Amino acid sequence: MTLTQNFLGAAATLAISASAALADPALIFDLGGKFDKSFNEAAFAGAQRWAEETGGSYKEIELSSEAQREQALRRFAEAGNNPIVMTGFAFASALETVAADFPDTKFAIIDMVVDQPNVRSVVFNEHEGSYLVGVAAAMASDSGTVGFIGGMDIPLIRKFACGYVQGVKAANPDATVIQNMTGTTPAAWNDPVKGAELAKAQIAQGADIIYAAAGGTGVGVLQTAADEGILSIGVDSNQNHLHPGQVLTSMLKRVDVAVYDAFSQGEDLETGFNVLGVADGGIDYAVDEHNAEIFTDEIKAAVEEAKAAIIDGSIEVHDYMSDDSCPVS
Amino acid sequence: MDKMPRWADLFLIPFINLILAFIAAGLVVLAIGQNPLDAIYFMIKGSLGSTSGIGYTLYYATNYIFTGLAVAVAFHARLFNIGGEGQAAVGGVGAAVVLLAVDWPHWTVALPFAILGAASFGAAWAFIPAYLQAKRGSHIVITTIMFNFIAAALLGFLLNGILKNPATQNAETRNFGPGAHLPTAHEMLAPFGIEFSKSAPLNFSFLLALACAFLIWLLIWRTRLGYQIRAFGHNERAANYAGIPAVRITVLAMLISGALAGMLSINVVMGEQERLIKEFVEGAGFVGIAVALMGRSHPFGIVLAAILFGMLTQGGFELLFEMPAISREMVLVIQALIILFTGALDHMVRDPVERIFIRMKNRSA
């Protein structure tokens, strides 16, 4: 008897919550999970900020298998959640089919372009931010040799590397940039030991600043840099706090801004191509109490100058992905 | 020798195990301040309450049937094949190579060749540990588990190299094309006027898995080879004495096992993704071990256990969706508890229940 009552009660709460959930936005995290200290966590932060500021509520889910991508999209769309935001390019093929089936629901995908009338494709000008930290690296380097450690060797990460090299060369044309990729499989995103080895190798070659664009692998790079007494540059989220006084700055990719924007626009989400760059604050570099001492006014002035130049168009940072090649190395 | 009735062995014990597992899992849910009955309700409703839910449940079950049978066949020869994960991954490469090589006119033509590709690659991957076990005495548990890592690396290498679709950043092949599309449950049931969810990934492979279960039953209990495998598993020396060649049985049992594991890719790679992706096995090879244990290495039991594990996978996802307070890791804990009680703690229930039955029998006698 109590069992039936409980079931009925559960069904009733379900019915109520279903109607209340109507038009709540939803966020789907990739397999990396919500608290990955990087990409997904930034998305979560954006959603939280939106919820705190507006008092609204949103739905979220963490995936654990590939088959669940399409399932999660459909479940949220069927439940009336709108808009539905997802993190990561791996959602592209699932979104292609689901977006067509739910023409009245708005979707936003981060880091990927899906050409559907009800989809907003958010991409970042990572090359611009990498350029800025490249300028900072060249200014802060004593040896004239700086390093770059990428995660998985894909065009996106080469885009980071290329922007970085351009920034370094702009500030110091004689500087040398050592570049390494951690690997060619997704495991390269989460291999801090390999990251540490690469960092040691670069230090042995004279690098005194290393920029890590490598997800979880970067944690090992930053750690080694701190242990060996050189500076590092973080990526995506603000990683300055990981080793206070030893992380020069972090290239910020404001995934949180993208999620916050999408949630704020709600059902009237503007669809189409949405490029976030230095000009609109979607890409930035981090200055806080942890790096205030090492990020000198001189460096700051140079970086701010470059930033202004990118915004007014007098500096155009080459995007590796536009032609799959980099003019400098 | 006194024994409990067969129905108690096959149904009562697993059922009691399951109830205990649900109680333990319920306590965990209670501990984080949620209603355990709600959780069970959402898990059951999510896995069986809609055609979409059933579609996902049976889709996962298909994977577990293949890997469960793979473990069971090896287990009958007393070989513990932990390499289902790697054999399935390499089987996926086999299926993908076949499906990419030719522009297939129709799935009925493509399927037999895809099965051949998947099964032969999976079997080939199992052959090396089998040979090392039979001829060199390298322990199969160690070699198969090491081969899982090699398979993962191989898959990554191929998907970032010659098999990679240059149009995407993902490590994946291009799509196989419409000629290799397996009919989904929706497409198969529509002619009979049954409205099955369009989005569920359940496809023709489920029937293939059931057919495999029947064939494995025939093989193990109705053929000479099956008898040899069982005899070898029960007592290697006695089997040897009876003229059953150890090397041949070890290798054959592992080849069949690897082929079955490889066929998982027919469901995931050909049936669902329609392209080869990096992480498509997703632990099904390891779940297969639990499925085989719970199903007592009998194809019928394996099908039932696979469906239960399919329910856990799909129900767990729905639980995540309906009860936000329960995290992905919590769902894993609940699933693990169920595996623990139904698989590992089997004797905790079996021995007392057996004693009760024997006492009752003695009293009536």
Features:
heterodimer, A: 329 residues, alpha/beta, Rossmann fold, 6-stranded parallel sheet, 6-stranded mixed sheet, 12 strands, 19% strand, B: 365 residues, mainly alpha, ABC transporter involved in vitamin B12 uptake, BtuC, globular
Q: Would you give an account of this structure?
A:
The complex is a heterodimer of chains A (329) and B (365). With 329 residues, chain A is of the alpha/beta class. Chain A has two domains: 2-124 and 257-276, Response regulator (Rossmann fold); 127-253 and 296-323, Rossmann fold. In chain A, 43% of the residues lie in helices and 19% in strands. In chain A, strand 8, helix 8 and strand 9 form a beta-alpha-beta unit. In chain A, helix 2 runs parallel beside helix 9, helix 3 runs parallel beside helix 4 and helix 7 (192-204) crosses helix 8 (217-227). The N and C termini of chain A lie far apart (74 Å). Residues 1-21 of chain A have low confidence and may be disordered. Chain B is mostly helical and 365 residues long. Chain B has a single domain (34-328), classed as ABC transporter involved in vitamin B12 uptake, BtuC. Chain B has helices spanning 6-31, 36-48, 51-76, 84-101, 107-136, 140-160, 185-189, 205-222, 224-234, 236-241, 246-262, 264-273, 284-294, 299-322, 328-344, 346-364. The radius of gyration of chain B is 21 Å and the shape is globular. Chain B starts with 5 loop residues before the first helix and ends with a helix. The model of chain B has no long low-confidence stretch (mean pLDDT 91). The A-B interface holds A 3, 6-7, 10, 13-14, 31, 33, 59-62, 64-68, 70-72, 74-75, 89-90, 92, 101, 153-156, 184-187 and B 35, 37-38, 41-42, 52, 56, 59-60, 153, 156-157, 159-160, 168-171, 199, 201, 268, 272-273, 277-280, 282, 313, 317, 320-322, 324, 327-328, 331-332.
